[in-house]
Design brief:
Helix 2 (79-90) packs across helix 8 (243-259) and helix 3 packs antiparallel against helix 6 (182-204). The chain is globular and about 65 Å long. The chain has 8 helices and 10 strands. It has helices at residues 38-49, 79-90, 130-140, 147-152, 165-177, 182-204, 220-230, 243-259; strands at residues 2-8, 13-19, 23-30, 57-63, 75-76, 96-100, 105-110, 116-122, 210-213, 234-235. It has 260 residues and is of the alpha/beta class. A hairpin with a 4-residue loop joins strand 1 and strand 2 (13-19). It folds into 2 domains: 1-91 and 241-260, ATPase, nucleotide binding domain (Nucleotidyltransferase, domain 5), CATH 3.30.420; 93-236, 2-Layer Sandwich (Nucleotidyltransferase, domain 5). Helix content is 40%, strand content 21%. The model has no long low-confidence stretch (mean pLDDT 93). The N and C termini lie close together (12 Å). The strands form 2 sheets. It has a 5-stranded mixed sheet.
């Protein structure tokens, strides 16, 4: 039996097709978020990859920032629960999850059964989020996905002292005008994000193992800086960006089993 999990984020849409609640049959990611055609596009892509139709899916669960806008779904679930579920499936030893989303940042703690135990969330300010990284990449005239590579070239970190996105952007502009090394600037930006997110994580309590979930986890510079701030190794799974969608597909499977 097949279930689908669809994670409609603010900057990207992710999809997982799960077979019998345990095997990942298909996956797709589209760099278009809520309020766009992204959700429909990633849904269509995932089905087309395996020549499937809607009726081939036993259940479709949607999560994420735009979860209430996708009418094709059978049900919806919060992204907190879905990221916890997905990461617990991918890495059962994880007890602390850091998810830096496009519009917010979250620190989750799981219990011994891999279930969400507690969380803290920052959704009041763009600093410490994927949006902050996107804005900074634009100001530096590089692609957001290139930031990790630039970080690896840094010889030191150019300090970004402002905690507000607007002021930090002005600070970056000022440093660019002084010919501060681009790679060092990127490393400083990553440190700024890590410090903001680490505060959330410490507030919720750090229990090993610690992992990152979501697309920002693909940025090795952020992972490096956050690991240093938290003084621990940050685990990153190859499917980290799809953890929310995976969790949704797993919840869909559980609902199917209850109906059986």
């Amino acid at each position: 039996m097949l279930t689908m999990g669809l994670d409609i984020g603010s900057t990207a849409c992710k999809c997982i097709i799960l077979e019998d609640g345990k095997n990942i049959l298909g996956r797709a990611v589209v760099s278009s978020g809520a309020g766009t055609v992204g959700a429909q596009k990633v849904y269509d892509e995932a089905l087309a990859m395996h020549s499937l139709k809607r009726e081939d899916l036993g259940r479709l669960m949607v999560t994420g920032y735009g979860r209430f806008s996708f009418e094709t779904a059978d049900n919806q679930k919060s992204e907190l629960s879905c990221h916890a579920k997905g990461i617990a499936f991918l890495m059962p030893t994880v007890r602390t999850i850091i998810d830096i989303g496009g519009q917010d940042a979250k620190a989750l703690r799981l219990n011994a059964k891999g279930m969400l135990d507690s969380f803290v969330m920052n959704d009041k300010c763009a600093a410490g989020t994927g949006k902050f990284l996107e804005v900074m990449a634009g100001r530096l005239n590089v692609q957001t996905e290139e930031l990790g590579d630039w970080d690896a070239k840094a010889t030191e970190e150019a300090s970004i002292s402002s905690t507000c996105t607007v002021f930090a952007e002005s600070e970056v502009i000022s440093k660019l005008s002084m010919n501060v090394n681009l790679a060092n600037l990127v490393a400083g930006i990553h440190r700024s994000v890590a410090k903001r997110v680490a505060v959330l994580a410490y507030r919720n309590g750090i229990v090993k193992d610690v992992a990152m979930s979501g697309g920002v986890a693909l940025n090795k510079g952020v992972v490096r800086a956050l690991g240093e701030e938290l003084k621990t190794e940050i685990l990153v799974h190859a499917d980290c960006q799809l953890a929310g969608a995976l969790g949704a597909a797993l919840f869909a499977w559980e609902e199917l089993c209850k109906q059986a």
